[in-house]
Amino acid sequence: MPITQHEHSIQYSRCETVQDLTAAQQSLIESAFQASDLAYAPYSKFNVGAAAKLKSGAVVTASNKENASFPAGICAERNLLNYISDHFPTDEIRSLAVTVNPLEFEVGEPISPCGVCRQVMCEVEKNQSTPFEILLKGTTGEVLIFDSASSLLPFHFYLKELKR
Ligand code: THU
Q1: What separation in angstroms does the CA of 109 have from each of 1, 57, 142, 153?
Q2: pLDDT band at 163, cuts 50/70/90?
Q3: Pairing of strands 133-137, 93-100
Q4: Domain locations in the chain as residue ranges
Q5: Ligand 1 atom at minimum distance from 48 CA
Q6: Nearest residue CA, atom 6 of ligand 1?
Q7: Does 75 contact ligand 1 (Cβ within 6 A)?
Q8: Could you tell me if the CB of 41 is within 6 A of ligand 1?
Q9: Among residues 65, 27, 60, 30, which one has the least CA distance to residue 48?
Q10: What's the pLDDT tens digit per position in 53-63?
Q11: What is the pLDDT of residues 38-54, one digit of tens each?
Q12: DSSP annotation string for 59-80
């Protein structure tokens, strides 16, 4: 059997300025930005904020929390998803915005969630009825828009057999 070659492309949208987004998208990015003020990031000084709009209309926010024992820290995205799981267990995420406001420098490009957060986003998405939108922004510059978590992490790990 010959080896066959395949390609997998990622679809996303780019928006030059937040003003070109919908009012709801702008508002969610603003919520994420405000959440970044609550980050505890004394080591990296990379203050990240995340905000989710839920099916019920609720907006929930979280930030990254670091620790002197570095691996004990958690990214804003997973901090948010864990909070939603505990406090809004029957709700669903419709849109997730992530932005960054570092203390000592500017980030002129959209933040790019780490692989672990992408993996967790994918599983949260699988457990609800529809995919959710993801908005990524730096301190300044363009916004990237993804239609789903799975488009951010093709070939993510999932084995339904593990649930048995
Ligand atoms: N971080 C996030 O909170 N989200 C991301 O998408 C990327 C990285 C955090 C983890 C750590 O506190 C700091 O940013 C630097 O890596």
Answers
A1: 44, 29, 7, 19
A2: confident
A3: parallel
A4: 13-162
A5: 3
A6: 113
A7: yes
A8: yes
A9: 65
A10: 999 999 999 99
A11: 999 999 999 999 999 99
A12: EEEEE-B--SSGGG-B-HHHHH
Q: Which fold has domain 13-162?
A: Cytidine Deaminase; domain 2 (3.40.140)
* H or E element at residue 116: helix 115-126
Q: Is the CB of 66 under 6 A from ligand 1?
A: yes
Cα–ligand 1 centroid distance for 46 (angstroms)? 7
DSSP at 89: T
Q: Does residue 48 contact residue 64 with C-beta atoms inside 8 Å?
A: yes
Q: Quote the pLDDT of residue 63.
A: 98
Q: Specify whether the backbone of 23 is left (phi greater than 0), alpha (psi in -120 to 50) or beta.
A: alpha
Answer yes or no: is the C-beta of 46 below 6 A from any ligand 1 atom. Answer: yes
pLDDT at 1: 79
Listed residue (29, 136, 148, 146) closest to 93, CA to CA = 148
Which residue, chain included where needed, has tokens 């009825």? 129
**Angle between helix 76-87 and helix 115-126 axes, rounded to 10 deg:** 20
Can you list the positions of beta strands (E) in the chain? Answer: 13-15, 48-54, 59-63, 93-100, 133-137, 143-146
For residue 160, the model assigns a pLDDT of: 80
Coil/strand/helix, residue 36 = helix
